[in-house]
Amino acid sequence: KAGVTQTPRYLIKTRGQQVTLSCSPISGHRSVSWYQQTPGQGLQFLFEYFSETQRNKGNFPGRFSGRQFSNSRSEMNVSTLELGDSALYLCASSLARGVYEKLFFGSGTQLSVL
Amino acid sequence: DAKTTQPNSMESNEEEPVHLPCNHSTISGTDYIHWYRQLPSQGPEYVIHGLTSNVNNRMASLAIAEDRKSSTLILHRATLRDAAVYYCILRDTNAGKSTFGDGTTLTVKP
Question: I need a labelling partner for A68 at 20 to 30 A (CA). Which of A29, A103, B16, B37 fits?
Answer without folding.
Answer: B37
